[in-house]
Amino acid sequence: MQTTSHVLMIRPVRFLSNPETAASNAFQHRETDGGAAQRAALEEFDAYVDALRGCGVDVMVVDDTVEPHTPDSIFPNNWLSLHADGKAVLYPMAAPNRRLERRADILDAIGSRFRLRQVVDLSAFENDGHFHEGTGVMVFDHTHRVAYVCRSSRTSPAVMEAVERETGYRPFWFGAADRRGRPIFHTNVMMCIGQTLAVVCLESVWDAGERAALVDTLEAGGKRIIDIDYDQLERFAGNALELRSRDGEPVFALSRQAWSALTAKQRELLSSYARIALAPIDTIERLGGGGARCMVAEIFLPRHVPAATPPDND
Hints:
The protein has a single domain, classed as L-arginine/glycine Amidinotransferase, Chain A (5-stranded Propeller), CATH 3.75.10. Helices cover about 30% and strands about 20% of the residues. It has helices spanning about 35-55, 95-100, 105-115, 135, 155-165, 210-220, 230-235, 255-260, 265-275, 280-290, and strands at about 5-10, 60-65, 80, 85-90, 120, 140, 145-150, 170-175, 190-195, 195-200, 225, 240-245, 250-255, 275-280, 295-300. It has a three-stranded mixed β-sheet, with helices on both faces. Strands 3-4-5 form a three-stranded mixed β-sheet, with no helix packed on it.
């Protein structure tokens, strides 16, 4: 299925603006007061968890550790994806301190609730300078098994080939750039794909041929496109995620900043289609350069089936 009602989120303990990622993340801003950043990020994180749970989404929260210091641990979707066939895929990360986010105890915690059949570890690609940051750089159309990938320093054709072998997702490559011509570092900043809707910043795809092919492929997959502009992209309107409540209703998760950036018509369309999970995560967006979608790792793994209660023979 395209959407899930189960997600993983990592509660931060030492959040701040990561100096190792700033060069390629134009959405990220510096902050010198780490204590203030952590306090604000923690409050925003908890409010977002409450918003998702209030919409009927099952949120599995794992606390980050003080050591080693992983300032971007709040964005687990970059190093991990969890698939319906029981696979977990671990991805090669560009920043050395982000590689420390891959934790065996997190996989153990997931495996205690879900059937984790196999861990596919692609992190060795880092040794050859190949990086491919999970569902940050790949926006999946699960229904049609397509991975939309915009080219950047954080994507690798070699790793994408390995992902295709392991998961069966075919890549759709294209170029996307911000208004100053800098490559967009993560695809999920400029687009998201739901069951029937796709939010896309088409003006960021400068090549007319690639833009037309992107539109054609999305529409062939049954997606209605909500086209956002650069102003909306810069306020994280593309960094959204469709989920599902426990009772099967669609849930659309995005930040309050992203929601306020949408037009009245776009907000009406989304709110008529899905429950809206909103939270103010301004500090996380400003300092981390990632938004509501980046904070969530979807769990498509099958649930453990509870053991049958033995009959009472008394």
